């Protein structure tokens, strides 16, 4: 029971109301002397301090029993304990019926222990505020909640307000003032900021004690931490919103979505799965996807990789042929990830994308590339494509045979300039410079200037094989342009003209022989036998020049040609001597 300094009852708890048989409203209209006559001394009494000492709250079980009266007039004996609660002079009286003092003592001790454990476990802090002095008192748990050491706490209303979150300051003060003015319970929640910057959510309960004139005297209440609860609620709301969004996304996406349990049995599929596979939701629930979706054309190695991954609780990314309900195959790109709950595998989620059109296009491109490669390889021309820097990108079979490089050795490793004879490059640059009236460096770029200016360039070159064997080739280079007419590479086409060069050489040699024979005929004076012999020799030379085996025997060819020239020289000299003689 709380009393004013004059002994007026300001507040009485339920136990006190039951003890005296009065309601709270009735008790607050009474003075202690009406309940326990002749025992209360006011603060101004000379014996007041003796009264406070004799009936101290910590000596309640040692005090004498006092006569008290219930509402119905019944007399009972009570023991009281008195303590001041504020500078205002208000006191708190604890009243116990004497017959129950011993058992009450034990109960009180136990209750205090339980109360201390409960408040500490629940994180409940108790506060008191004196309206007259402005003093604010916190217990130990309040200091823990606010992160303020007791020595640093100023014990004022302003100290508490300064800890409120700026966004909650106005509403919280308004609620407290409303409770005081309307004499209602103070029940609210707010955020605080600790000295270390930590943000907490607190719940506050309290009630205000008034005097007989309804002037607020004291507010008593509790705070406890709601941070974990608010954080959990926030996460739950965010999770709910996220799950709703994901559920909508999963339902509306064009990709098929499959959820399974830990044993790969289907628990849910979206509408896109039904559309892509042809199976309804009801038809697939509880089944394993591979049982009814895979078929003869499903790659066994891919299926085994997928099975191994899920057996070990891992995800996978694969491309696989599945089968529609009507039996038609289709391509899927499958992204499967494991799902965990409380650290345990709970199932799998697979996102499947229909890539049938893409795979068919890839197959067509692959077939076209194979056809193109076959065409290029069947050509009796060297076909070499390069990038803008002449690094080789493609290298057909004919190029491999003539240049003696494998495709793997050339593509991405060699440059077109690697096949040119350096001396021939210098000669070509000089020749091209004369044709274009310019000066060019002795490298392949000089040859390409013509291709850039005219759209193509063709010229005879000496090309070098892997074994540094040179052979003549007619080479043309054409720029390859993109859609914006920018040069992105070059196409080099070359043919081996070794045989052609041999034929031209033989033709020239035959022509030289015929011219020599004509010259000798004009000189005259040759005997019939000598003339016939020369004709036979020339005929044999021409005949042998057409014989491939003879063409390869350079020693024999030189011998016959020298013999023909010697005979011509001898005959000429003989005729001149005969004429002079």
UniProtKB/TrEMBL annotation:
Keywords: Coiled coil, Kinase, Phosphoprotein, Transferase. Pfam families: PAS_3, PAS_9. InterPro entries: PAC, PAS, PAS-assoc_C, PAS-like_dom_sf, PAS_fold_3, Sensor_kinase/Photoreceptor. GO terms for molecular function: protein histidine kinase activity. CDD domains: PAS. It comes from the Bacteria. Residues 1-36, 242-313, 368-424 form the PAS domain. SMART domains: PAC (SM00086), PAS (SM00091). It catalyses: ATP + protein L-histidine = ADP + protein N-phospho-L-histidine. The keyword Repressor does not apply. Its EC number is 2.7.13.3. Residues 186-238, 314-367, 457-509 form the PAC domain. Residues 94-121 form a coiled coil. It is an enzyme of class 2 (transferase). PANTHER family: PAC DOMAIN-CONTAINING PROTEIN, PHYTOCHROME-LIKE PROTEIN CPH1. This is histidine kinase. It comes from Planctobacterium marinum.
């Amino acid at each position: 029971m709380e009393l004013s300094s004059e002994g007026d009852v300001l507040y009485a708890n339920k136990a006190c109301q039951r003890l005296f048989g009065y309601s709270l409203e009735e008790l607050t209209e009474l003075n202690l002397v009406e309940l326990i006559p002749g025992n209360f001394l006011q603060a101004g009494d000379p014996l007041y301090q003796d009264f406070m000492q004799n009936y101290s709250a910590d000596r309640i079980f040692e005090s004498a029993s006092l006569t008290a009266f219930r509402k119905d007039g019944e007399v009972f004996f009570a023991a009281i304990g008195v303590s001041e609660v504020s500078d205002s002079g208000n006191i708190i009286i604890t009243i116990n019926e004497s017959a129950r003092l011993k058992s009450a003592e034990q109960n009180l001790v136990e209750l205090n222990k339980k109360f201390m454990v409960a408040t500490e476990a629940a994180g409940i802090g108790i506060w008191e505020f004196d309206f007259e002095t402005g003093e604010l008192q916190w217990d130990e748990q309040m200091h823990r909640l606010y992160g303020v050491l007791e020595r640093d706490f100023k014990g004022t209303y302003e100290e508490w307000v300064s800890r409120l979150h700026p966004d909650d300051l106005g509403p919280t003060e308004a609620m407290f003032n409303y409770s005081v003015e309307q004499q209602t319970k103070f029940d609210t929640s707010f955020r605080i900021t600790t000295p270390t910057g930590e943000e907490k959510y607190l719940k506050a309960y309290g009630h205000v004690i008034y005097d007989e004139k309804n002037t607020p005297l004291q507010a008593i209440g509790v705070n406890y931490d709601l941070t974990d609860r608010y954080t959990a609620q926030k996460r739950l709301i965010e999770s709910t919103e996220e799950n709703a969004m994901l559920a909508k996304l999963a339902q509306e996406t064009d990709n098929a979505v499959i959820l399974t349990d830990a044993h790969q049995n289907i628990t849910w599929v979206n509408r896109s799965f039904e559309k892509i596979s042809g199976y309804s939701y009801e038809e697939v629930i509880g089944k394993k996807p591979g049982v009814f979706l895979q078929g003869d054309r499903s790659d066994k190695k891919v299926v085994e990789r997928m099975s191994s991954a899920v057996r070990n609780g891992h995800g996978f990314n694969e491309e696989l042929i599945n089968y529609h309900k009507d039996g038609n195959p289709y391509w899927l790109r499958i992204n499967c990830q494991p799902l965990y709950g409380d650290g345990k595998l709970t199932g799998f989620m697979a996102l499947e994308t229909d890539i049938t059109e893409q795979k068919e296009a890839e197959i067509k491109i692959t077939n076209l590339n194979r056809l193109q490669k076959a065409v290029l390889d069947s050509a009796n021309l060297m076909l070499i494509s390069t990038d803008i820097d002449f690094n080789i990108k493609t290298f057909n079979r004919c190029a491999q045979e003539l240049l003696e490089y494998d495709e793997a050795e050339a593509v991405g490793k060699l440059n077109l300039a690697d096949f040119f004879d350096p001396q021939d490059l210098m000669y070509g640059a000089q020749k091209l410079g004369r044709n274009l009236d310019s000066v060019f460096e002795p490298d392949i770029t000089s040859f390409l200037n013509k291709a850039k200016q005219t759209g193509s360039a063709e010229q005879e070159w000496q090309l070098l094989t892997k074994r540094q064997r040179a052979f003549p080739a007619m080479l043309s280079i054409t720029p390859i342009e993109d859609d914006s007419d920018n040069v992105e590479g070059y196409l080099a086409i070359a043919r081996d003209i070794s045989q052609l060069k041999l034929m031209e050489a033989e033709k020239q040699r035959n022509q030289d022989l015929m011219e020599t024979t004509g010259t000798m005929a004009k000189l005259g004076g040759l005997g019939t036998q000598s003339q016939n012999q020369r004709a036979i020799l020339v005929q044999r030379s021409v005949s042998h020049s057409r014989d491939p085996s003879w063409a390869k025997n350079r020693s024999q060819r030189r011998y016959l040609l020298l013999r023909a020239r010697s005979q011509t020289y001898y005959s000429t000299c003989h005729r001149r001597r005969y004429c002079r003689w």
